[in-house]
Aldo/keto reductase
Amino acid sequence: MITHLQDTLTLNNGIKMPGFGLGVYKVENGETVVNSVKTALKHGYRSIDTASFYDNEEGVGQGIKESGISREEIFITSKVWNEEQGYESTLEAFDTSLKKLNTDYLDLYLIHWPVKGKYKDTWRAMEKLYADGKVRAIGVSNFHVHHLQDLMKDSEVKPVIDQVEYHPHLTQAELREFCEKENIQLEAWSPLKRGKLLDDPTLTQIAEEHGKSTAQVILRWDIQNNVVTIPKSVTQERIIANADVFNFSLTEKDMGKINALNINSRAGTNPDSFDLK
Ligand SMILES: NC(=O)C1=CN([C@@H]2O[C@H](COP(=O)(O)OP(=O)(O)OC[C@H]3O[C@@H](n4cnc5c(N)ncnc54)[C@H](OP(=O)(O)O)[C@@H]3O)[C@@H](O)[C@H]2O)C=CC1
Ligand SMILES: O=C1CO[C@H](CO)[C@@H](O)[C@@H]1O
């Protein structure tokens, strides 16, 4: 279990990744994303999650540069978007992301969604990028168990990670069990359900008992469940507070109560009903 903001988990290809990071979906390119990234890095974050779809890779790159922290200390994730999928187009999309991020390698590159008929060719391109040493690890996002099984049956490299929607209302039991068995790390997107969980009475009560906020309780629950978490905020105080979750522990009883909040409810789209053509 990670015990500090900069602690790392070891992925199935042996590389290390921080268990906690900053998400930047819907963070405007330019000053807003530059400042969010700089604030996070200044306060100990070492992992940033972006995507070509977020249209802010330039700002992320600029924030990293202006932070003065060396590139090797920072773990950068980006993702290939649905329209970019396919063998050649993924290689091109990757190069575009590198240029925008102003870096010569990525730490982690993900297939953003399992586009039917495309994700296997996309994966072959990811395997090439990995073999060529342009990316330290490759993984997927929004893959259900059946997508993972389909991908893995004819691929050489196993995904290191599956980044999916995960929070107390969506605990992904089947996927978690599968990933644990296959040594694929689970990573939580929308860990705070985009703010929709923060008034939950069970979480509020647990938060009061620990002298913490509900957001901090949720993020601590991720960590204790061994799920990588990447809360997004553009608000300086929240970026700092969200990471202040390494000085308390939830009890087994707290964990049980939070696990029991699952209602299989999503803030985003179910990968099986997304129009992924
Ligand atoms: N792979 C995928 O398909 C997806 C990946 N992601 C990734 O996951 C990241 C996180 O998910 P996201 O959807 O952004 O949602 P989150 O669950 O991280 O919630 C973000 C929202 O919560 C608010 N917030 C953050 N911290 C606090 C706090 N302490 N108290 C109150 N409100 C708070 C933020 O407001 P404010 O910013 O105003 O402070 C923002 O409105 C994304 O940014 C992205 O990197 C997300 C969706 C899909
Ligand atoms: O990363 C993402 C951010 O959120 C979007 C809207 O839910 C998703 O479609 C996308 O995958």
In short: The chain has a mean pLDDT of 97. Residues 25, 51, 53, 112, 268 surround 1,5-anhydro-D-fructose (ligand 2) (CB under 6 Å). The longest strand covers residues 135-141. The two ends are 39 Å apart (CA to CA).
